[in-house]
Amino acid sequence: MTTLAGTPERPVRVSAVLDAQLSRWLWLVKWVLAIPHYVVLCFLWIAFTVVSVIAFFAILFTERYPRPLFDFNVGVLRWSWRVAYYSYGALGTDRYPPFSLGEEPSYPARLDVEYPERLSRGLVLVKWWLLAIPHYIVIGFFLGGRHLGWWEGGLITVLAVIAAVALAFTGKYPRGLFDLVLGLNRWVLRVAAYVALMTDSYPPFRLDMGGTEPHEPEVLP
């Protein structure tokens, strides 16, 4: 769906499926298991930043985000989201994330950003810093800190660890916590795509909880 201005209403789509059977204790060592991904993501996020700077000038002069650069940065967001979902951004799956920039539709955490045919020259000058300041304040509370191009600490990690402790003692990941954690991550990823100049749609100040986007059918494990 698009707005009257021709901008997609929900250009960033984030979804995830909670594993039906999660290990009670694997979450204790996922920080070790994810180290290879953290190393790769460190370099990918350096490249992401460079690509975003190049895209800034491309949009400023042509009103277009070069498609190969766009696809690369979407891939970095996808990879990061899968690693976050596996580790302490959600702890929602025990399936090891693939080393891939692609869509990987079989993986339980998915992300897509609709490619914009045109982007505003004026907005590109201000949206990544001035217009995003209110969101930076909010998601700073969600994330706590930023390490290796992704997030660590803050409300999201605290809630994920609480859910993991509940899993350890009950064998179940509390559904309400899962929905909240997904909503917080969705908010962060929408802002990430906006400040990376991938969309002109201003992220809503709205907590869309659950494993699927609003008005999409819930996928059950």
Task: Summarize this structure as a short list of keywords or feature phrases.
7 helices; 221 residues; 48% helix; two-stranded antiparallel ribbon; globular; mainly alpha
Helix content: 40-55%
What Rg do the Cα atoms give? 17 Å
Strand proportion, as a percent range, falls in 5-15%
| Average pLDDT reading | 92
> Which stretches are low in confidence, meaning pLDDT under 50 for 5 or more residues running?
1-5, 147-151
The total count of strands amounts to 4
Q: Element order, helices and strands?
A: EHHHEHHEEHH
**Count, helices:** 7
Largest sheet: 2 strands, antiparallel
Quaternary structure of the protein: single chain
